[in-house]
Specification:
alpha/beta, 5-stranded mixed beta sheet, 4-stranded mixed beta sheet, 733 residues, 32 helices
């Protein structure tokens, strides 16, 4: 959520009143279980926004100035928005006494927020080598992130037991760990309270509603009453229960919705309790809520996969959801389809139809490649790997069984530049051959990666010490059975991930260095270093020579072998850290949330011929404009990068409208060959030729032009100019 939204729904006096109440709740108990329940009771009363007369689902919420969330705008756990405090402190509405209260609250939460407690645990090595500021215009290589993300929860336990049944289960297990189970009962009571408040709101709205809206509001009230004390009986009730629980929990992704809602949908259709048209209206209402929640880098809904027990019914839901995505054409939810050999062809055809219509969804994942790859990378058996789900921008977790938070990012290109730009310590000048230089680079990266892995485990440890994250612990596998919270032995697989950027520019730069400095001896190490340091000013001929060196993305063995070597070496260095720090796995994610542009703005000129402070290539994709041998060559390069050594990567593809109309059979053949040859995933934007250029010139005419940026979609005209330029540089096939 944007920072300006924090004061969107409440007045400043109301915000102050809330913060005082939340802080008092926090101070009431030293028991972390009861403290979390106390704080969430206050938070949910203020954060859950009222129903609107045209809603079909309850559960609109916003992020408060202080609070408790697994992932907030500014941190993890007990968070604190310093910018919100600043706005409050400067308000003319406050009396001197209230201003003093704000100062006291500010001082308290500066000490007590979970980010600060994590930071206070770092040793000198982490503090000096990993910066604690935003990576915009920064010359650093590794950065820390504070969040607990990746919880893709399965609500079927809710459906099978109901809230009351879950509470009975906790009560029956109480002797194992009384504080834990009392906490579980506490948050389930909170869920009931939220449902009851929304029920009363629906009844109140119905009293004032016209004859068209009234029956829908009354049915909403009935749905909320039922899920408060009983299991859901209908599709509408199950959708409401799952969405509301996940929203309250703080998760931003919504799991395998076709699997957990498919049976309800088909049963209702057969019994004529529901029509397909109204089921679509319910999904459109959900789409609207997700759009207002504004978590564009997340909001995943997963469809597909051959491990589903109810494939036929699940596919019925998938067809419905894809049709809504095609019709509504919004930037969220990130509808994701797990494809496999032998799947329902109607679902796949419907997916291509939606993509061709410009929806950018669903994102296509190839299970025939991903399942064995996930098994190897995440160190699980193939039956478990069948449960993989992407979340966020494309990271993988095991459904309802693991977390793999990306708590750090690394700019591989900046790491390469630093050992070249470093004056008397310039390792390019010092290295007698390419192999020595390359190993020196890997050594530097290994040092930073080890620190980032350590920080990942520290963050989990401190988060677990501070809070049990009870809404997660109630549903995630094994926690209730073991009597342990997710971060203290409850979760089956506690893993971590590291976001990697600049991979392709780094491999192209290494290839250029090897070619120009060591193999062909066209330029000395000293001259290349000097050219990079001054952004090629006076060295344009050299820059053009560097650009002419073979580039990844053209099915060129020389360039692609370097990309493969770097990819596998970096993946191995990262994965080797898991055992050292005590995680089940620690893996790279080669994704993009426009950070290739953000990081690029702080990265100097590079040996691939890239100018200083300009965007880097997107994830695994070629640098914009450098793939010059056609779509087949580009895809051939992509599939050379192993997918069994990381936890997710992004493959963005831009196709012209012709490729999804008159040339659709050819496009299907290209995608089939790509998947057959090892392609793991495809994120596709379909555009008219010249659309992006025209949108930059006449944005008012292209307000609904949606593009795939990296691990998320956006309206092109709403993107920053530098991100627009990066998108414009990509090849349109």
């Amino acid at each position: 959520m944007n920072k300006v939204d924090i004061y969107r729904y409440k007045t400043i006096p109301e915000i102050l009143q809330y913060m005082k109440a939340f802080t008092a709740a926090y101070r009431q108990s030293d028991d972390k279980y009861q403290r979390e329940v106390n704080c969430l009771r206050v938070q949910l009363e203020h954060a859950m926004l009222p129903l609107r007369a045209d809603d079909l689902l309850a559960g609109r919420c916003y992020e408060l100035a202080i609070g408790f969330l697994p992932q907030s705008e500014d941190g993890v756990g007990y968070y604190y928005h310093d910018h919100a405090m600043c706005t409050l402190r400067e308000s003319e509405e406050l009396s001197p006494a209230e201003r003093h209260q704000v100062a006291e609250l500010e001082a308290f939460w500066e000490r007590e927020n979970t980010n600060r407690k994590i930071y206070d645990t770092y040793d000198r090595e982490i503090l000096t080598q990993l910066p604690h500021f935003k990576p915009v215009d920064s010359p650093e290589v590794g950065f820390l992130l504070y969040r607990l993300t990746g919880a893709q929860m399965d609500p079927r336990k809710l459906f099978q037991l109901g809230i009351s049944g879950l509470m009975e289960q906790a009560t029956a297990s109480m002797e194992k760990n009384p504080p834990f189970y009392r906490g579980i009962i506490g948050i389930l009571e909170l869920f009931k309270e939220v449902c009851h408040r929304y029920e009363m709101q629906a009844v109140s709205l119905a009293e004032e509603a016209d004859e068209i809206a009234k029956p829908y509001l009354m049915q909403m009230a009935e749905n909320l009453r039922i899920i408060t004390d009983d299991k859901p009986h209908t599709f509408w009730q199950a959708l409401q229960m799952a969405y509301l629980y996940m929203t309250i929990s703080g998760t931003y992704d919504y799991g395998r919705m076709d699997e957990y809602l498919g049976d309800f949908l088909v049963d209702d259709l057969k019994a004529e309790r529901l029509t397909e048209d109204f089921a679509k209206e319910l999904l459109k209402s959900l789409w609207k809520l997700l759009l207002e929640r504004n978590k564009i880098y997340n909001s995943r809904i997963i469809l597909g996969g051959k491990d589903r027990a109810n494939i036929e019914n699940a596919d019925r839901f998938a067809l419905l959801a894809i049709d809504v995505a095609k019709t509504v054409k919004e930037i969220v939810p990130q509808l994701t389809l797990r494809c496999y050999d032998g799947m329902n062809e109607e679902v796949y055809e419907k997916a291509l139809e939606a993509i061709g219509a410009g929806a950018t969804y669903p994102i296509l994942y190839n299970d025939d490649i991903n399942v064995p790859s996930v098994a190897k990378a995440l160190r699980v058996d193939e039956a478990t790997a069948q449960k993989y789900v992407p979340y966020g921008c494309g990271e993988y977790v095991i459904y309802n069984q693991s977390l793999a938070t990306p708590s750090g990012t690394i700019n591989l290109l900046q790491g390469l530049n630093k050992i070249i730009y470093s004056g008397s310590e310039n390792l390019l000048v010092k290295s007698k051959d390419f192999e020595s230089f390359y190993q020196a680079y890997l050594t530097k990266m290994r040092q930073i990666i080890r620190l980032l892995a350590r920080q990942e485990k520290i963050e989990y440890d401190i988060c677990g010490r501070e809070a049990p994250f009870l809404f997660y612990s109630a549903l995630m596998d094994d926690c209730m059975e073991r009597g342990k919270p997710i971060l203290e032995g409850g979760l089956r697989y506690l893993s971590g991930t590291l976001e990697c950027y600049g991979n392709v520019n780094t491999s192209d730069s290494l290839n250029a260095i090897k070619w120009m400095v060591y193999d062909k001896k066209c330029v000395s190490a000293e001259e290349l270093s000097a050219a990079l340091a001054c952004d090629f000013e006076g060295y344009e001929d050299l820059r053009q020579s560097l650009i002419a060196v073979p580039k990844y993305g053209n099915d060129n063995d020389i360039a692609d072998q370097m990309a493969v070597r770097l990819h596998e070496d970096i993946c191995r260095i990262i994965s080797d850290c898991a055992k050292e720090v005590g995680l089940h796995s620690y893996l790279p994610v080669i994704i993009n949330n426009s950070m290739n542009t953000t990081f690029g703005s702080g990265t100097g000129a590079s040996a691939d011929g890239r100018r200083a402070h300009t965007f880097m290539a997107n994830a695994n994709n070629p640098t914009g404009g450098m793939d010059q041998n056609g779509i087949t060559a580009m895809l051939n390069s992509l599939v050379k990068l192993k997918v069994d050594c990381h936890a997710g990567s992004v493959q963005n593809m831009r196709f012209s409208k012709e490729m999804f109309t008159t040339l659709l059979p050819k496009t299907k053949g290209i995608l089939k060959t790509y998947f057959d040859c090892g392609g793991s995933q495809a994120m596709i934007s379909v555009l008219g030729r010249g659309d992006l250029e025209a949108a930059m010139e006449h944005p008012e005419q292209y307000k609904n032009l949606i593009v795939r940026v990296g691990g998320f979609s956006a309206r092109f005209v709403e993107l920053p100019n530098d991100v627009q330029k990066e998108l414009l540089s990509r090849t349109l096939y």
